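S1.2 Input.
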Amino acid sequence: MQTMTKHLGGPALLLAIGVGFANACGVAHADRFPTVLYEVNGPAVATYISYQTDTGQQHQANAPLPWKTQFTAFGGQVFVISAQGPGPISCKITIDGNVVSNATATVGTPARTACTH
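S1.3 Output.
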């Protein structure tokens, strides 16, 4: 009796590896869309805020502080926010109520801070 072994072809093998990698790294599943909150805090006005959302790169100039924005993300994206203004100035990224990144800048003219996840 002959035993048959089935091998995965190139595209199928890459898909299997990608799914395994995504699961191992905690990439969000397509049926779950996290709520993301970006915050910037400081004593005055942020002269410039730049951030990445589900719709692309966004900018805000001369934003009164505290400042925040919230959106529903799709799975697997990178979250980034940066801000500059009179220090101290801080940023924070919260996903589904959990703080995943925060940073504060106290020096510089202007002070610059960035958070990523």
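S1.4 Remarks. The longest helix spans residues 10-25.
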